[in-house]
Fold this protein.
Amino acid sequence: MVYRVGILGLKGHQGVVLNSIPKIDDVVLSAVADDSEEALMRIKKHPAVTSDTKFYRNISELLEEEKIDIACVSGTDGERAHVLLECMNRGIHVLSEKPLTMTLDELSMVKEAYNSSGVVLSMLLTMRFSPSYRKIREVVTSGIIGEVCLANAQKSYKLGDRPEWQKSHKTFSSTLAFIGIHPVDLIRWCTGREFTEVMAYQSNVGHPEAHDMEDNAVMILKMDNGGSACVHLDYCRPMKAATHGDDLLRIAGNQGVIETFEQGSRVRLITHERKAEELTLDEPMDEFLNFVNAIKGLEKCEVPAEDCFRVTEIVLKARESSETGQPIKL
Amino acid sequence: MVYRVGILGLKGHQGVVLNSIPKIDDVVLSAVADDSEEALMRIKKHPAVTSDTKFYRNISELLEEEKIDIACVSGTDGERAHVLLECMNRGIHVLSEKPLTMTLDELSMVKEAYNSSGVVLSMLLTMRFSPSYRKIREVVTSGIIGEVCLANAQKSYKLGDRPEWQKSHKTFSSTLAFIGIHPVDLIRWCTGREFTEVMAYQSNVGHPEAHDMEDNAVMILKMDNGGSACVHLDYCRPMKAATHGDDLLRIAGNQGVIETFEQGSRVRLITHERKAEELTLDEPMDEFLNFVNAIKGLEKCEVPAEDCFRVTEIVLKARESSETGQPIKL
């Protein structure tokens, strides 16, 4: 069979899917929807687009008119739960932006719809496919750094001109949820440890032009072995910085420390036995190819649905903590 | 006059005082006390020691026998409050290890004794005298990075063979208080911002040989402008690492980011207008010389008593938060 793909929104990492489609034989781009005519115009030049690709200004309309097998759900945070439910109810496999939903209630509804749908659901946790973090996971799960005691991570982004939807909490899930989900996921995935509690703060102090969007966010998490994690996020990266983002992940165990450097692009390991050494990284993996192969039953999905539900739950509870001022059990 | 110095304990940063004494004309080392004969033997070779320097196995005995003007209080955390009170009551100026006390009740007592004593009180917050942090403070307080949105700091130390007193909470104030006080102080001092709330976790996960000493600790703090800070501490630095400690301080404002690199030894600034540049650092300052000059009224004390009280209060409340599992107002 040929898998027909629909891109439901051009506001996220849909590039992962678009760029991968031309490399996969039995996948075609059937349709694209976005409320911006300009965004649709830009996409029309993409190699994934064929003369058969349809364009819509409305996601529901696309779903009504087109028969698609795979949806890339890449619109605003606010509309995501609704779009996911529409896809689930139609039996469409979903690769979604994150977080999955804006509220825990929505998350329950999506989980229920998923459980009775039989579809493959995954999330664009793109960092899992980057060589640095795959290497860190490989080393930590091999036991080289021993028992994990502490993990910390940073995401620092340039603010730039944010799209309107990110400036309102009606459509934006908050900085803790929107970008915090990456480090929360990476720490959990790389260490194999579960989190048991979270406490967080976030606010917008210095960027009134970004309105509701928080320019700073911090959270601490307790691990199930008693260890701890801490994450800090900001949109304060200066315009003159060499890269858009300044990512960092560091995991300290009782036998060694492994950490990224140069904005997350390189990895360094130090142990009690061996001095600091830079590790050789493998090639990046193609997330969409993995997703399609998971649908076909050829590979296991690298970002399984249970992880999507769990990390969404964690960051929504982190946001809740920042609102209530109380730690939340996980 | 000649200032007679007593070293009350050889379990901390007394080296700051000992190494400075030979460089100051009107200061002499009168006496040294420690319960370890071995530690006293080692110190006897130090250039600060003269034929007149007396040695004691007991701090109270030293205070009874000797008339000293300045005390370096550098014993265990557990005995500190008591020794501080003995010094205050005798009108002896005090340069103390940190935190000042083990409990908030003790802190109140010390504060009261200080207020009626007329002595100069300071704390061995040695990092304030390091060129990196002085530069960061200078840049941040000048306004170059704009409004401070987020600050984060790391201390990672090699565990090594810890002294017995650090392995029990009867004599050790916890990792959050003992080393956490440095980053808490640096963030507060460099940004000029006050903290309004703290939430923290700490535990010993991977080093049973260290008993009560925590190998991991994290805290998040809210700033009085709504910004946030996050600190992570560990004793997981591998034995083969190039330096004993791996310190980091980073402050992100709405106009730029300033941060240390290479274990806190170098400083980098990036702003919206200027690419990343390494800043030239000044020479380190001599903490004990500043303290003596403050006693003489020649300089303001770089670590004034009110800061000693405040940062001790903050880290003791951070420890309380880790015990109660609740955020604590500051």
User: Anything to note?
Assistant: The domain at 127-284+314-329 of chain B is CATH 3.30.360.10 (Dihydrodipicolinate Reductase; domain 2). Chain B touches chain A through 57 residues (CB under 8 Å). Chain B has a mean pLDDT of 97.
